[in-house]
Amino acid sequence: MTEFFIQENIYLTIFIVFGLFGIMPIIGLNIKNQFIPVWIMKHHQEVWRVFKYCMYAHIFEAFLAFIFAGFYHGMTLKTTFKWTLNTFIHGIFSLRHLTWITK
Questions:
Q1: Rounded Cα–Cα distance for residues 94 and 82 (Å)
Q2: pTM above 0.85, yes or no
Q3: With left for phi above 0 and alpha for psi between -120 and 50, is residue 91 left, alpha or beta?
């Protein structure tokens, strides 16, 4: 149990990294580019607000993963940090694995 880790689907990882950690900050910070339509860029303040709340949620989920993996399930430090980073990126998709396993 101390080395239990499930890697998420690579396509889900790519989608989240480019969407949540790539496209949303570009729109939210109002960075001019040729790939994102102008009508989306007009709503950059709302997108930035959504991005901030998504970051708060992902940080809280990563904190929960750290607590679950490290203290509740007693996993090694390396595995605990893998779960924390994986949950920060994937959010509830990764956290569900930690909450559903039994001791």
A1: 11
A2: no
A3: left
